[in-house]
Design goal:
It comes from Pseudovibrio japonicus. InterPro entries: Calcineurin-like_PHP (IPR004843), CNP_phosphodiesterase-III (IPR050884), Metallo-depent_PP-like (IPR029052). Belongs to the cyclic nucleotide phosphodiesterase class-III family. The chain is an alpha/beta fold and about 290 residues long. It has one domain: Purple Acid Phosphatase, chain A, domain 2 (4-Layer Sandwich), CATH 3.60.21. Helix content is about 25%, strand content about 25%. The chain is built from 6 helices and 13 strands. It has a 6-stranded mixed beta sheet with strand order 4-5-6-7-9-8, with helices on one face. A 5-stranded mixed beta sheet has the order 3-2-1-12-13. Helix 2 packs parallel to helix 3 and helix 5 packs parallel to helix 6. The longest helix is centred in the middle third of the chain and has 17 residues. It starts with a helix and ends in a 23-residue tail after the last strand.
Length: about 290
């Protein structure tokens, strides 16, 4: 019998990398060394991951040199990798630049991986030239077919996409996924066991549910925004850190999404204050 760790799915999800050609800076932030720090973090802590997914907005303005920089930087991570697109990406430019891009039969940048009893379903919500993403009939049909396969095979489903479908009750909702009810209807009709949805796009860390499905967002590699909720006015604050990616762990019963900060100016407390945290034991679930 396999050990628990052999059965535990581990996914890394990065989003909103916003790379520019080497040396260019926007809003005072050079996103290339920030992305390098993300990759350093993965190398230090998560080289046992089953898959690393880059969930869109790879570049700031979808130019060739930025896509080349993206591929050059991520090449040092010896993990299976998949790439999705966001509103800052251009599908045609990316396809011309990419080496063996993940594509469905209609040329959209989407696909799936079946790993350890799970189907990791990676969706193309990008609508080049538009801030809001969406799904045309072809993409919705593709999702219907993939969910039907997952249900038939008894696979738990994890959905990854760029545009957040869940309303966060913030101004960023004005450019979340367009017509999310169309995708939600497809998910409900499938009767598939969808255990988690993870998105980027909104530059904020959140967790909740959308139509009954657990849904989380990550702030990503560029700036993050504060929770600016209904009833407020004035200027929303933006911050240089933390920059973060998601670490998703699932054994089929327990599914957890952790937010790994790799740029964070928080003060580290003296370890001597927490002697019980030295070499702690993990719960045995075998």
């Amino acid at each position: 019998m396999s050990t628990y760790s052999d059965r535990l799915l581990k996914l890394i999800v990065m989003s909103d990398i916003h790379l520019l050609p080497r040396g260019e800076v926007k809003r005072g932030l050079d996103t290339a060394p920030r992305f390098d720090a993300a990759l350093d973090s993965v190398q230090a802590f998560h080289m046992d991951a089953d898959l690393c997914v880059f969930a869109g907005d790879l570049t700031e303005k979808s130019d060739v040199k930025a896509y080349e920089l993206f591929d050059n930087l991520r090449s040092r991570i010896d993990l299976p990798q998949r790439v999705l697109l966001g509103n800052h990406d251009d599908r045609d430019v990316y396809i011309r630049c990419a080496k063996e891009p993940m594509q469905d039969e209609n040329g959209f940048i989407e696909g799936y991986e079946d790993i350890k009893g799970h189907r990791v379903l990676m969706l193309d919500s990008s609508e080049p030239g538009k801030t809001r993403g969406g799904f045309c009939d072809k993409r919705l049909t593709w999702v219907v077919e993939r969910l039907a396969e997952a249900k038939s095979a008894g696979l738990k489903v994890i959905i990854l996409l760029h545009h957040n479908p869940c309303a966060l009750q913030m101004p960023v909702d004005t450019y979340r996924l367009s017509e999310p009810e169309k995708l939600l209807a497809v998910l409900h009709d499938s009767k598939a066991e969808i255990i988690q949805i993870v998105a980027g796009h909104c530059h904020i860390t959140s967790a909740g549910s959308w139509g009954g499905y657990p849904c989380a967002t990550i702030s990503g590699n560029q700036h993050r925004v504060e929770p600016f909720l209904r009833g407020r006015s004035g200027q929303q604050a933006c911050y240089e850190d933390p920059a973060q990616y998601a670490v998703l762990l699932s054994d089929g019963t327990n599914c957890a999404v952790h937010f790994q900060n790799y740029i964070d100016q928080s003060t580290v407390m003296d370890q001597l204050l927490f002697p019980a945290k030295m070499n702690q034991e993990f719960e045995k679930l075998d």
